[in-house]
Amino acid sequence: MIGRTGKMVLSRQLLINKLLEKLPNNFGTVKRWPIAVQADFFSTLANLLKIGFSLTAALKFICETDQHLKSGTKQIIDGLETGSDFSKCVQPLISSQAYQQILISEKHGQLRDVLNELATFNRLKLKQIKKIKTVMIYPAFLCIILLTLIIVIHTFVFPQIETLLPSVSTAQPELIDFHLLEVIGLAIGTILIILTIGFFKQPVLKKAEIVVKIPFLGSIFKRYIAYYLASNLATLLRNGLSVKEIYSVLCAQKTDSIIYALGEMLNTSLTKGNSLKKIVETHHFIPKEIVKFLNSGDTVTEMANSMTAYSKLMFDEILLATDKLIAFIQPTMFLMIGVTIVATYFQLLIPIYDSVKGLY
């Protein structure tokens, strides 16, 4: 009896172990923070480091005073106590781009400055998203009214016209062939799905080449790459790394990140003796200014200052470009609404006009 009980306990333990193996590695951990929470965390941590807190003391202070950040910060503290790096502990809670910047700054200094930059950039992103939502409220309300109007016309008005004017309305072809629209919509949807699947199968540098060619959004993405690269390079240069050492650091990053792909490409080109100018001509999204700074012959400190100034310039241009794009959204929506209203009224009035014309 005891032997049978022991076998049952052993088999149950084996089953539990199998189930645990199937669970994801981050099971039970805090999910990734929203952008607003990330911005608060970066800003608070940077301010605490600025006034003299150590990293561990600052995290414990946040854990004790901020309920929104408590669970995530506790997870980071637990990771640090096991000997993991701060960047590794915070990785599941933040975006991949922020992780790459923290990883570089942690290993080569300037963590506080990078945290401030990340907080500022995330708050800018939130501000722009809020602007877009505000701009879209009124057009979205008009679209709902217009859609309701179209449904009412097709459900109640057109049947009344067919009843009153059967000879005209039944023979009158519709201006809008809804079956044709369905076919076109299905074809466009299929093409978009195929293109999307093909896009995600491309290498990371090829993806960047495609995105920068998208109208309106491409220019913003290109400026973001310039800001991202310049800010990271400025961090490395401020710590006295040479150009070759910077390439080695970039190649040590996450393999699916754009900064790793660029580092690997630049390192390979440097080994083969190719010029940086040729690389820029091949990949148009790489800012020419960054290559000029690296080839300027200035001291490392001067190159770092140039990179910092350029990253701030790109940050301001991102803000300006997104403001222009947001200002363009509402007029475009109003134009689409106007065209739809005109088409709907033509579809409604032309059968009536033809019936009246037939009486004379």
Automatic annotation (TrEMBL):
Record-linked Gene3D superfamilies: Type II secretion system (T2SS), domain F (1.20.81.30)
Alphabetically ordered keywords of this record: Cell membrane, Membrane, Transmembrane, Transmembrane helix
Signal sequence extent: none
Pfam annotation, one family: T2SSF
Listed PANTHER family: GENERAL SECRETION PATHWAY PROTEIN, TYPE II SECRETION SYSTEM PROTEIN F-RELATED
Sequence similarity: Belongs to the GSP F family.
Main location: membrane
UniProt entry tagged with the keyword Cell membrane: yes
Presence of the UniProt keyword Manganese in the record: no
Transmembrane segments: 135-158, 178-200, 333-353
Membrane topology term: Multi-pass membrane protein
Protein name: Type II secretory pathway protein
Subcellular location: Cell membrane
InterPro entries (alphabetical): GspF/PilC (IPR003004), T2SS_GspF_dom (IPR018076), T2SS_GspF_sf (IPR042094)
GO cellular component labels: plasma membrane
Type II secretion system protein GspF domain mapped to chain residues: 41-159, 231-351
